[in-house]
Design goal:
The chain is built from 12 helices and 12 strands. The chain has 358 residues and is of the alpha/beta class. The chain binds S-adenosyl-L-homocysteine.
Length: 358
């Protein structure tokens, strides 16, 4: 018999499930909040022992387990390596800010997209994460820290819009008032530019924040570091962004990883400002660029520039009418770039079949 994935179920699906095993539907109302609070089935004392045992037998334990954990001595940032039920591993990062705790979560095991500067994509994509495994990262971090995650950024391993249905289901689960009740406005989703996914997300119309990993201001440069740009060029991407803004009225933020000598010159800043201002002209949309100095990854040749040069780039953008912030770095002493912990922990199973973009 196929095992049941309780954490992936909505309350309505749980009702169906309990009815299908001859239980009453109020069980759903008992179980849903407890699951999301991280209470294991065996500890759900509002259920009979017999029902607990039956449920345990029928279900797959999809809650990620802490495999390794690095804690920053500087600011308490925690980097988790989580092990999944099939032995695969993913990373999440727990960060403390004045406005609350933010968890950066993974959306896939590995990644298909092949961005040249990114460690997460070096081994290709192994599989999508289930809604339960997306939600489970938040539950597991809440349990481990004894604190509450109040903000989520989907900027860990994987491309969220390449796992669209599971991601949207997760967003609805994590927002549910009887569950973790995290407001959509406290959730950001970052994409490398999967254009059909941006249109679909606009249709779903959840008031989350969309971040676009742009990283270059013309097609030639962008294609050389991001293979996804071969499929959807910058103009198609920005047209989708304008559509998203018009439909949702949500501000879009652009991520721009500064790579020394590659995309961080004065000319690059000028071209970037002109590109974004041109695309959003007449829409009234505020344009915000987040600058990140590239995290150097051993297997790649990309080099990080100085803080001064990042600040100069930001000032240039500001002078040209584009709001820009240089991202503050938390956990700089545990600063394995995204995806590197998973690689170094030999969690990638060499026999696993992987997919790549080309
Ligand atoms: N696939 C999604 C989300 C995951 S990556 C996306 O591409 O947006 C989250 C962000 O980290 C992206 O902006 C990505 O381009 C950036 N990133 C990846 N590797 C990096 C590195 N080595 N240094 C700096 N930023 C990096």
């Amino acid at each position: 018999m196929n095992k049941i994935d309780l954490y992936s179920m909505t309350e309505d699906e749980l009702v169906e499930f309990f009815l299908s095993i001859g239980e009453q539907k109020f069980r759903a109302k008992q179980v849903f909040p407890n699951l999301h609070r991280g209470i294991h089935i065996s500890e759900m004392t509002n259920l009979s022992k017999q029902l607990r045992e039956r449920l345990e037998e029928m279900t797959l334990d999809t809650l990620p387990k802490v495999e390794r954990k690095l804690t920053s001595k500087i600011d308490g940032t925690i980097k988790y390596l989580f092990r999944l039920h099939d032995g695969e591993c993913i990373e999440s990062v727990f960060m403390r800010y004045k406005h609350g705790n933010t968890l950066c979560i993974s959306s896939q095991v590995g990644c298909l997209m092949g961005c040249k500067f990114c460690a997460s994509t070096l081994g290709g994509k192994v599989r999508d994460l289930l809604p339960s495994e997306l939600l489970g990262q938040v539950i597991a971090a809440n349990l481990d820290t004894g604190e509450r995650v109040s903000n989520i950024v989907m900027m860990g391993i994987g491309e969220p819009l390449d796992n669209f249905d599971n991601v949207v289901k997760f967003l609805k689960l994590v927002n549910h008032p009887n569950g973790l009740n995290i407001g959509y406005r406290h959730i950001s989703l970052s994409t490398c530019g999967v254009v059909p996914g941006i249109y679909k997300l606009a249709e779903v119309d959840l008031p989350i924040t969309l971040s676009i990993s742009l990283h270059a201001s013309n097609d030639e440069k962008r294609t050389s570091i991001m293979p996804v740009n071969k499929r959807w060029h910058i103009d198609e991407l920005l047209t989708a962004c304008v559509d998203y803004y018009k439909k949702t009225e949500r501000r879009i933020s652009f991520e721009y990883t500064l790579i020394s000598g590659k995309n961080d010159t004065e000319e690059d800043a000028r071209e970037l400002a002109a590109l974004l201002r041109g695309a959003f002209r007449g829409t009234g949309a505020p344009i915000h660029v987040n600058l990140i100095r590239v995290n150097e990854v051993e297997e790649t040749e990309f080099k990080q520039g100085s803080t001064d040069s990042a600040n100069r780039f930001a000032n240039r953008l500001e002078a040209l009418g584009v709001v820009a912030t240089v991202r503050r770095r938390l956990g700089s002493d545990i600063n394995a770039a995204c995806g590197q912990l998973r690689r170094s922990a030999a969690c990638e199973k060499s026999e696993t079949e992987v997919e790549t973009l080309d």
